[in-house]
Amino acid sequence: MYKILIIEDEAPARKKLKRYLKQACSSYEIVAELETVADAKSLLTQTHEVDLIFSDIELRDGTVFEVYKDLSINCPIIFATAYNEFLMNAFEANGIDYLLKPYSFERFSNAWDKFIRLKGNSSANYNELVGTIHHLLKDNQENSIAYKDQFAIKTRQEIYFLKVEDIVCFQADNGIIFAFDKMNKRHIMPQTVFKEIETFLDPKKFFRINRSESVQRKFIDKLERYNKNTVSIYLNSESKLLRTSQNNTGEFNAWLGI
Predict the structure, then answer these.
(1) pLDDT digits (tens, 9 = 90+) for 142-183
(2) pTM of the entire structure?
């Protein structure tokens, strides 16, 4: 019986993963379902009796790499995330596969089969395989990622195209995601999950400043300190004002190089 740990902060994603797991394997036990970096650190500090970890990357209180950086993880990890910019980090942290949301059962099954094959190998063979994947990804990562230069926006009367270069920011509100362009016009995006949009965006140009807002670098005019761990961001000739969350401020500053 395989002991499985799930680290995922979105309930629908956990439900889908467990459904696929039930289809792929008849003998397993889910040790725990965790939603935060803090909980993952706490559990993995206390126990090493895990055969496989299914892990998201962006959690409620930070990125899961904070866990794998601080702790020695001996079991393989299958990452399931909406972000494609963390490929290298994933394979440096015992990752054996990288499921990009939304993924199919076929894609999940391939990752599971890889785990089964590796389970019978020696640790040396396992480390060699991970190292090989790491180098292949490093050589081909830039060519394999294609970001959108425009989004197709559907209305009742028409379909029009919104250029990414004109998008100042994205904002999520009650299950609807809006894009605001440089004329401050609001567009309703076809995507309903914020992470889906981010897979199409160049992370060098866009940054999620909190759970529901993302900004484009070139439209940032100035920053002001709002409180100890939060900054105010003035965008698009100061026509729009947004604020970082406490958890994202440090990474946002690093992203800007300040």
Answers:
(1) 444 568 899 999 888 899 999 999 999 999 988 899 999 999
(2) 0.52
pLDDT digits (tens, 9 = 90+) for 56-68: 988 888 888 888 8
Average the pLDDT over each of 79-88, 168-177, 186-195, 209-218 and give the range with the smallest value.
Answer: 79-88
**In CATH, which of 3.40.50.150, 2.60.120.1200, 2.40.50.1020, 3.20.20.140 is domain 150-256?**
2.40.50.1020
In angstroms, rounded to a whole number, what is the distance separating the alpha carbons of residues 96 and 38? 23
CATH 3.40.50.2300 corresponds to the domain 2-144: yes
Q: Write down the residue that tokens 């965790």 correspond to.
A: 34
* C-alpha triplet 159, 82, 39: angle, nearest 5°: 145
